[in-house]
Amino acid sequence: MMPKVTLIILNHNSLDKFGEEAYKYLESIVNTDYDNLEIVIVDNGSTDGSADEIEKRFKHLNTVKIVRSHTNLGYAGGNNLGFKLYGRESKYVAFINNDVEVERDWLKKIIEVMEDDLRIAAAQPKILQLRRKELMDSLGGLIDRLGRAYDLFHNLGDKKNITKPFEVFYARGAAIIIRSEVFDKLGGFDPDYFIYYEETDLCWRMRLLGYHVITVPTSRIYHLGGGTTGGPTLKTIYLRRRNQLTTLLKNYSLKNILKYVPILSILYVGYALKRLIIGKDVTMFRIYVSAILWNLKNLKKVIIKRKIVQGSRRVSDEEIIKYMMTTRKYDAISAVMVKEY
User: In this structure, which of 162, 197, 214, 254 has its CB flanked by the most CB atoms within 10 Å?
Assistant: First the structure.
């Protein structure tokens, strides 16, 4: 028998976002072909009636557990709750968004690879776009040395010639499979992140312990995108920038904090001033400045977390940086993406 997997799905007002399709996505996930699977649906304080409808449609299934949170705990807190209640007894925990459809064998293909290599702590499938299935959403997460994230091959054609598992810096939170023991040891996702960069931070912390993170391209799912947040908003822009900065402060050595955090902060301030002076955009100015100020105001908390991370470190920054893009390469990719899309 395959090792036990607990699969956690978050729901927050999915009826408002997707209508009847919300339940079609859940049905696809629930029908995953895996013979030792427990499914946990965590409702994150929904107010649109979707929680009641999910209970009505799925609670009768023996493999499905439903958890209700009275408040929206975000991606980090909601998934941590599901793991705390049900995930510790499983060998693996999988976190998957509620706006995906899956090929039935997607999970089995990943677990088979992870079972063959104990050094792999986390993995993701090939993630294609749900509305245009010939296009990639992500073949894995990469960052540069400033923590700027890039989804490998995003918006490009399906890379069918890539079939062997390969290393990425982080696995996408839309569908990430993790060894439960490692997830528990690291304390799960950082709940202060709420949403965005929580999987980047987690995979970085795994790497500091000497683990690997991979993509398994033969495993395939299809992602709508924006299902958790409803698409970009001023709040999500703020959380991205705030959490990006926190991630560098927690995970880099002091030497590299002094090297890269000032650069990132200058980029934030420069962009904020540009939006303010040229575009008269006071709101965006406040967002970028607030991202820096939050980290300054919460520096004591960040330092405490940093001490825990650095205290368990087994791998040097020099080894970690090998899996990062250079800032020059990121800028080149970013320029092309802007021109094409």
Answer: 197
| Amino acid present at 157 | G
pLDDT per residue as tens digits for the range 264-305: 999 999 999 999 999 999 999 999 999 999 999 999 999 999
CA 309 from chain centre, in angstroms, equals 19
Give the model confidence (pLDDT) of 166-182 as tens digits.
Answer: 999 999 999 999 999 99
Distance CA 98, CA 58 (A): 14
- H or E segment to which residue 223 belongs: strand 212-223
What's the predicted TM-score (pTM) here?
Answer: 0.95
Where are the domains positioned within the chain? 100-341
Cβ-Cβ contacts under 8 Å for 287 (sequence gap 6 or more): 234, 237, 238, 241, 272
**Cα(301)–Cα(298) distance, integer angstroms:** 5
The radius of gyration of the chain from alpha carbons, rounded to an integer in Å, stands at 20
CB 50, CB 17: distance < 8 Å: no
Judged by DSSP in three states, 17 sits in: helix
